[in-house]
Each structure stands twice: as C-alpha cells, then as structure tokens.
Amino acid sequence: MNINIPFHHRSSPDPPEKQLHHQYNLMENTYGKRWERRPQMYFSPTDCTAEYANANQLQQDHPCVIHLIRNNYLRKPAPKDLPYALDKPALIDPSDGQSQAILRLLRNQTNGFFIECGALDGEFLSNTLYMERSLNWTGILIEADQKAFSQLAGRNRKAYSLPVCLSTKPYPVEVVFNASDWSGSFIVDDDNQNQQLSEEDRNNNANINGGSIYKVQCFPLYSILVAVGRTEIDFFGLDVEGSEYKILQTIPWHKVDFKTLSVEWNHVPEGEAAMTRLMESNKFVKFGHIDMAYSRERQNR
C-alpha cells in the first residue's frame, strides 16, 4: 500500500526579495531583470546542445534551455477531434483514486491545466486522463521511461508530452535511468554513492536487461513550464520513485502558481516531515493522505 500526499495552495508565495536565500539559478539573478530585452546575447544556435547546457549548468530560463526543450523534446497535444487510442476505453477513470481526491479539492473544475510527472504510458494508472477526457483539461505529461513513453505517444493525449526526467538540480543534467521495472523506474542518483554504476556495470546491466539502463536528459520543471508558456497550474502530480523532494526544491515558487499538488513520498529519503516543511514554507497546506495500492503520495494545496 502506498500513499500520496495532497497539498493545496493557501496564499500567494513570498515576494522574491524574501526568497533570495534560495538558489534557483535564474537569468535575472545572473544578469538582472532587463536581460530579456536582448535575449539574443545569450543564445547561439551553433553552441546550443544538450551537452553544452549540461556542462555549463545553464539557468532554468536560459534561452538555450528553452530552445532545446521546444525543438528537441516537446510534443504538442493531439488534435481534439483525433480519437484516443486506449487499451481500455470504457474505463472512465484509470487512476488509483487520486484524480477524484484532487477534483474534490477543486470542486470538479473544468478546463484546468495539469502536470503529470511519472505519466507511464498515458493510460495505466493515469491521474489525469479522466480530467482530460471528461472535464476538458489539458496539460503536460512527462515520462522518462523510453518504452512507456513510446506507448504514451500513441495514445493521442490532448496534452503536451516529453520523454525526459525532471532535474534534481536547478539546471539541466543527464542521468543514468534504470527502467528494469516498468512500474517503478528510477534515476540512479549521482549523490548516492551506493547506487553508482561503473561504465562496465551499466553496459553489463543494459545487455542483461535488454537496454533497461540508459542515459536520460533531465530539465528543471520551471524550464518546461517556460517552454510551454504556462506558469499557472491547477494540479501537479509528482511520482518519480524517490527524487520528489529534490525536484520540488528547484522550483522558483515566486514565479509559478500551483493550486494543488500530489506527491508520492514513500521512496523519498528526506521523509514525509521534510516534504511537509518544504511545502508549508511555500504557502501550501497538507490535506491528509490518499491511500493507494500503487503509490504513496501526499496532497498539497
């Protein structure tokens, strides 16, 4: 049994001047608030590669980072008149109870905008498919598992989608991704020496598991939001098997507006108490837990 923690936003976040102790790695922190008047000064198409962005730890909203996401990774929503390609089209809500719990907080809101990170194949245990099909929502689907994303891409979801992971740093990084368990894929955390794999081990594991251990590009969540042009989010579902706390730490909360979040916490090394403190410091209220067979999450609002 796993638990999701729901959070609900209770007020506007603190102004930027009260958050200066946070290192969000934004262009305005480096170059001043007027940098956007001449963004071409910071962008060279020739130099703009994922390798360059990673090596130079480019800012979350750096023009090169946004260019990479838009041109190399971001897939647009399927046309609304294109039928879904689902395995179980008669199943109205495939989530494990999370979507209904969130919608109770939002009073069955229609025309909302979601982010689902850990979207799997876009159908199985999807926490957003019901919102999309029945309540006319759209949003962003993020899935780093190559096999799962290939299936997601064929579902004709009416949302943006990306085959990437969310960075645990306030800049783009490339990580080793273990997809040997399709329903529980995870990042091999560079900060955890016990999980480090040598190049030989990676190759051996890849051969044994049919290529289940491979490198994946990660971007900060805020970078993806800027690339899509959306910073007001009605629901953010985060389920990435252990990196949730670090991902949330990268978000410049004074730049975004989230109504609700639901975060899996049972694999988070920092624990539930640390997660609660982090969210409360950013003006969110915990709304208990959602007990589910497949995940452990906390809801925030």
Automatic annotation (TrEMBL):
Q: What is the lineage of its organism?
A: Eukaryota, Metazoa, Ecdysozoa, Arthropoda, Crustacea
Q: What's a Pfam family in this record?
A: Methyltransf_21
What's this protein's name? Methyltransferase FkbM domain-containing protein
* Domain called Methyltransferase FkbM: residue spans: 116-290
Coiled-coil intervals, chain numbering: none
Gene Ontology CC terms:
endoplasmic reticulum membrane; Golgi apparatus; late endosome membrane; plasma membrane
Q: Which InterPro entries match?
A: EGF_Rcpt_Signaling_Reg (IPR053202), FkbM_mtfrase (IPR006342), SAM-dependent_MTases_sf (IPR029063)
Task: For this entry, list what GO says about its biological process.
Answer: endoplasmic reticulum to Golgi vesicle-mediated transport; endosomal transport
